[in-house]
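Note to self: user wants both folds in one dump. Writing first protein now.
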Amino acid sequence: MVEIAAPWVLPTEAERLVAHVKNLPLNVRWSTGEALGQRVRLTNAERDALKVWQIAACDVTAEERIELRKAKERVRKRAKRQRVPRSVYLAQCRARVPPWKAEGISKATWYRRKVRAETSVSPDQSQGVRLGVSAAQREG
């Protein structure tokens, strides 16, 4: 692993470093989220963008982080309360008549007509294309 992460380190030096780290107590080896945030200078904006919530932001105190978390939760709960209940949503979906049934045609026919209408070319445009005549030549 050291050869990949730090190819410039000599193998003997790498072995010595690995042995040293293995001999350290766990509380020294493992950093807290607070310490990692300070070490890498992770800002709160970067923390949210990268979704690295295990590491604390260096520009926000623990109390501010708690307040930010509570504010996000309030926004999330407010949005949830304002959503349309599933039963109402499903009732509206079932009540809506598909456009092909409203026209009395099959679904495939409705989609074929839709594609044809979107890709159709007006007669003026198609004439110039078929004859190889530009718009300027037709007008002049």
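First done. Writing the second protein, which came from a different request thread.
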Amino acid sequence: MIEEDKRAEEIKERWRRWFDARADWDVQAREDIDFYLGNHFTDAEASDLAERNQMGLPVDRLYAAIEQFKAIITSKPPKFSAVGREDSDTKLANVWKTILEYIWDKSDGDEVFKQVVHDYSVTGLGYFYSYIDPEDDYYSAMKRRNARRKDGLRQLFFKDQGDETQGDPKEYEVTEKVF
């Protein structure tokens, strides 16, 4: 019988712990999104309130607070800075600063940043994902499709990916943006 490497077992255990934590976070994030959208009570809690002749209508202050937070945080685009190693590198540092600002504008950085702040505010996790597109020459001819599932989770698809919704089209609201 082949002995298993202890390092492999340790890696498997780490992965299981990470996966279980991620699954727990998914459940909690779904509940947080529901709460943000106004679903404050479970069916059992709503029926209990109805039995007591109380309204199950919450006064929702969370939505307005999150929208105000997003507006304050994302009111201005970020300021980029680059510092050269030597005094002679100031011109090159200025070039890098200009390149970073151009990339931010070209990539719809403001819109992505608003969505990151929103996701962080509601679910506790918001992140940027950046990558170098090797086919950037064709980028201007592509359409970006932003499909929003009706359950609140977002998915981003490009025109060349085939079946964008990967499921029932009734579950998605699709918007297109031509670059």
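Dump finished. Worth passing along: The chain has three domains: 1-60, 63-130, 135-179.
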